[in-house]
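Re: your question about Putative hydrolase YxeP

S., sorry for the slow reply, the queue was backed up all week. Below is exactly what I fed in.
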Amino acid sequence: MDSIDFLNISKAMKPKLIEWRRDFHKNPELGFELNRTSRIIKKFLQKEKIEYYETANTGICAIIKGNGNKTIGLRGDMDALPLEDKKTCDYASSIKGRMHACGHDAHTAILMGAAKILNSVKDKLNGNIKLFFEPGEETTGGAQIMIKEGVLENPHVDAVIGLHVDEKIDSGKIAIKRGEVNASSNPFTIKIQGKGSHGAKPEDSIDPIVIACNVVLTLQSVISREIPPSDSVVITIGVIKGGTARNIIPEEVTISGIIRTIKKEHREYVKRRVIEIVNGVVSCMRGKCEIEIEESYPCLYNNYYMEELLINSAESIIGRDNIVLLDKSSMGVESFAYFSKERPTVFYYLGVKNEEKDIIYPAHGSFFDIDEDALPIGVAIQCKIAVDFLNK
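Result:
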């Protein structure tokens, strides 16, 4: 298998990779309603004679069967964002208010390319490859549903690989963060009940707006005074709702926000402190409250062995100088974390920035695009690490 030049094979596929990616980019679909995207992938898998089944509504789990039971999973997410595409190009979104502004169109094309190449050498594989086409990554995460529906079993998946395009990294390079990669997420809602009155007679009220202000300020002391400065934790209040007129003190105020943590111990600690602080502040100011903290995305952790495997495999494709080691974890969330919670995983970033082509705009923005020269690199690395995992 060392004699297979995955990069040159992938480069030969570049026109097809671009065709797939641009078609998905021009026809974006949201959440779990990926009927067209899913239909195209299933047609491709049928043509390649790759077994598959549907999962998580419009998600797909496919399997390339080699020789043996050892199995590795490759994941590609498929959904777009509810955003207006303002680019001027022939593959700009044809659907108003929808856009592939995060690169999932590229992820899907890369997974299809890897599937085609790996299927052509399946008789030389000492094990199996599962392909996870994930819906709903930008919403609640299709990964957790796929896992519940059994994609990591029959056969048992031993490890999973994920990638994400990154507009801050030059095309031709990849980046990896060892250990903790992405934060966990806990959305929360706090309802503060007071007593309404005329705005000119605050003594007749229990003002929930004043209570809410104290809650917001006191919560920030958790970050500044209870968490080590070297560790990353975020408590963000994104919504405050209350009141109907300037001269009326309302009866209720609702606060909504989100907790982001990297370490598991911080996640549990901050959740507990939010409850303690809110109850304490509200009760001492004579109000009542209801607190709901949701369990959302877990932390994404890279496995040490899988990190080393990726670095060694990628080095043979792009050279060690083109592998960037990141210092900081991201406070953003990533549904690949559900896979990392269940199996040894490695998640890395594929550079797609190219200043000469004016490909510099941020993800989740209306001008986002990628340098398509990166597509064959993504395919080649996915193929190489999968083969190295199974055969070495």
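Residues 143 and 339 are 7 Å apart (CA to CA). Residues 264-284 form the longest helix (21 residues).

Happy to talk it through on Thursday.
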